[in-house]
Amino acid sequence: MTSFISAWIWSERFWLPENVTWADLEHPPPGVEYPRLWNMLYAFPLAAVVYFLRLLFERLVAKPCAHILQIQAGVPRQAQPNAILERLYQSKSPDERQLEGLSKQLDWDVRKIQRWFRVRRNQDRPSTQKKFCESMWRFTFYLAIFIYGINHLWSTSWMWDTRECWQNYPFQPLSPEQHSYYLVELAFYWSLMFSQFIDIKRKDFVIMLVHHLATILLITFSYGNNMIRAGSMVMCVHDASDIFLEAAKMANYAKYQKLCDGLFVFFSISFFICRLVIFPFWIIHSVLVESWEIAGPYRAWWLLNGLLLVLQCLHIIWFYLIMGIAIKAIFRGKVSFGIGCGN
Question: In whole angstroms, what is the distance from residue 222 CA to residue 306 CA?
């Protein structure tokens, strides 16, 4: 039974092009290295290291910067201890019928109970300083990994001629830079996936969960299938616009409104160019059309392209939300972050 499940999971007919076997990729010519999927297991301990580095960075770098910028942690008002209300708060928000029942049970006015829940919710909201530290960590990571990625891609031929992503596919050598790039990106997204449940609770929690899951699957599958050339461009394009988003959020938390507005404009433009122009018309076009023409489709090819299209749908949703923030900013005279921008 175990061997049957293993054979089904690692089916060569599903994962690899016709007439290609796992043995072909496990025995490259001398001096050549092909990706081995088990190498991605190193991403799990590395994800723990990334999360630990984040805690150190926030404490030793970001927090002192917040103090310099006079961003205070703040102490929220504490709700009056009440075991009955606390138990209900941890499970769900009360409806009108429950509020009336609680009013009779506690001999409290309904408005007093509503006020208790409002104060209790404010207790759980992270401080501006906490949000600043988190954004500074992400800004630093996105900037560093983007510089690393673009430095590697700039000197490659397939960045400028995407048809070369599929020449002699899947027998394309893996460079140490590509391996490191993939491993660090995968570790970072695993750390985001796990920390999302203990971090600042986002209004777009479900969208971000789908995004992280789709990204992790894409990175893992594209590594195992040696679609690393196209995969490297996908990661680089995504990191580019995130730099400006996190910078704009930091400026917003520090109350540098004009700087925040300017950075948000750069973010909106870079998001549109990277994720609604370059990603679909340059990268997805290459994976969908050029790979079909040169290497031909196979079963996993449909899965990988489906995940890319899921990401593109998320990009459209996010750009709609970004435009909503931009329109509000025009009427209010300033940018105010909300849904879709991680507030």
Answer: 13
Rounded-to-integer distance, Cα 104 and Cα 255, Å: 45
Q: Which residues contact 87 (CB under 8 A, 6 or more apart)?
A: none
Confidence of residue 210 (pLDDT cuts 50, 70, 90): confident
Distances (CA, A) of 259 to 237, 271, 290: 24, 18, 42
Residue 85, CB-side half-sphere exposure with 13 Å CA sphere: 23
Gap between the terminal Cα atoms of the chain: 48
CA-to-CA dists, residue 84 to 99, 123, 163, 205, 251, angstroms:
12, 17, 64, 28, 41
User: pTM of the full predicted structure?
Assistant: 0.84
Task: Report whether 38 contacts 94 (CB < 8 A).
Answer: no
Residues 6+ apart with CB under 8 A from 48: 191
Please say if the pLDDT value at position 234 is more than 60.
yes
Alpha carbon of 146 to those of 47, 185, 234, 266: distances in Å? 18, 10, 11, 16
